[in-house]
User: Fold this.
Amino acid sequence: MTAADPPSARSAALARLRDTLAGLTTRAPAGGAGASIPVFADTSLIGAGLVRGALHEVCAATPGSGVAFAAILLARCGGQVLWISTEQESNLVWPPGLIPFGLAPENLILARAARWPEALWAMEEALRCPALGGAVLMAGAGQGLDLTATRRLHLAAEAGGVFGLLLRPDGTAGASAARTRWHIAPLSSDAAPRWRLTLLRQRGGAPAGPWNVSFEATTGSLRLEAGSA
Assistant:
């Protein structure tokens, strides 16, 4: 979809997405439906991981760090995942660039919306689709995501049992119904990608971090660097 699309073209694109999601409900997801999504190789840091059937939020200091972290988490969902962006954010997602972080193109469905309300609609529909492993919505600095909107998304995730992610630029997050909120920023590296990761908020728990972590491509794991706990 593009900003110049006539209403009939936008309606047709939304209908195709609806049909795609409806078709997925006839197939069982590949991953374990009840298992949490691990974040760290060391599970003592935050327990078993991020629960499915919930909305989680990532605030990124740079677009690349946020996209990489989202790809790492979504790769562990099992089955197909839907990546939703608007016209303004769509150039930040290049499927071959997600492969090093474990997210294979054949498991990825890309949806690009001309308007923010359409992106929100697509995310809510995706989170209600139980055959998806996960879904991510990229939000730009000027796009509204208030408490009401995030509560709708969280309830949709609970209904569908889908792992949901909101990917937001640094400094834009306000009140949110997301179960956890993370912040990620890049660190200099000559080899494996490195980030500074902080759990800003979690429902029923205390903030945690920050941690300096590196990505181990052979295992697909985030490793805590010595002395950063």
Q: What stands out?
A: The longest helix spans residues 7-24. The chain has five helices and nine strands. Residues 26-32 have pLDDT under 50 and may be disordered.
